[in-house]
Amino acid sequence: MDRRERAQYIAAQIKDQKLPPPQIAVVLGSGWNGVPDFLENKIVVPYASLQEMPRCGVQGHAGNFIFGRLANKNIVVLEGRFHLYEGGGAEKAVLPIEIARLLGAETVVLTNSAGGIRQDFCPGDLMILRDHINMTAKNPLEGVAATNENPVFIDLCSLYDRDLRGVLARLAKENGLSVHEGVYAQMLGPSYETPAEVRMLARLGADAVGMSTVVEAIYAKYLKMRVVAVSCISNMAAGISSAALDHKDVLAVLKERQPRLSALLRDFVAAIE
């Protein structure tokens, strides 16, 4: 089956469970996984229980659709994403986004952890995405047939919703978090960037770098969803500080920040019109 048929097949299995259609989808990156604790009437649908649904292969990505209510809204939390470096290409990476849209979600909140490039960033800071640079050489619309309803030549100038960015920035400050806006670069991974690559990204205008989010955001825009994305700066990128890069250190920073990140997402979802 092709990508659309596969997404429809998986979405149909979820619809058969008679769950409330979600209005908002929240994609949990590393360190953001406390959000489901705030959901009422929570129902977990493991990826592994769905035919044709891939499995997550990265530590910290459990692999569940979690349905529930928050602030009188129906929410689906995507606990686990697929990275390009795992194989399967952009088609696999955006599959959960397409399923969420087929289930009814009109807004998507993308979260991730990222390496800070800007000198005024510190581990634990937040960066709301204002724009991005796609350094993966992958576009999720490659091979997608254009239709009148969903053209593939989409304008990305307003990809990250200005109004949602403003609400998120305000709530982050109210929650005592250091927050910035900036440009995020997605690299293919899974190896971290070299210091030379980070210097290149800085010259290109990137403020933070990671291995997810951009292809998902592009595809969500193609599906006519409102998009907002936020990074937790879990470490400084290669060469910005003298510290060696270690995934265990990244997870430690995210674990310390997790309660505040989750509370922020709770407040943000509640505030979305």
Automatic annotation (TrEMBL):
<keyword id="KW-0808">Transferase</keyword>
<protein>
    <recommendedName>
        <fullName>Purine nucleoside phosphorylase</fullName>
        <ecNumber>2.4.2.1</ecNumber>
    </recommendedName>
</protein>
<dbReference type="GO" id="GO:0005737">
    <property type="term" value="C:cytoplasm"/>
</dbReference>
<feature type="domain" description="Nucleoside phosphorylase">
    <location>
        <begin position="24"/>
        <end position="270"/>
    </location>
</feature>
<dbReference type="InterPro" id="IPR011268">
    <property type="entry name" value="Purine_phosphorylase"/>
</dbReference>
<comment type="function">
    <text>The purine nucleoside phosphorylases catalyze the phosphorolytic breakdown of the N-glycosidic bond in the beta-(deoxy)ribonucleoside molecules, with the formation of the corresponding free purine bases and pentose-1-phosphate. Cleaves guanosine, inosine, 2'-deoxyguanosine and 2'-deoxyinosine.</text>
</comment>
<comment type="similarity">
    <text>Belongs to the PNP/MTAP phosphorylase family.</text>
</comment>
<dbReference type="Pfam" id="PF01048">
    <property type="entry name" value="PNP_UDP_1"/>
</dbReference>
<keyword id="KW-0328">Glycosyltransferase</keyword>
<dbReference type="InterPro" id="IPR000845">
    <property type="entry name" value="Nucleoside_phosphorylase_d"/>
</dbReference>
<dbReference type="GO" id="GO:0009116">
    <property type="term" value="P:nucleoside metabolic process"/>
</dbReference>
<dbReference type="InterPro" id="IPR035994">
    <property type="entry name" value="Nucleoside_phosphorylase_sf"/>
</dbReference>
<dbReference type="GO" id="GO:0004731">
    <property type="term" value="F:purine-nucleoside phosphorylase activity"/>
</dbReference>
<comment type="pathway">
    <text>Purine metabolism; purine nucleoside salvage.</text>
</comment>
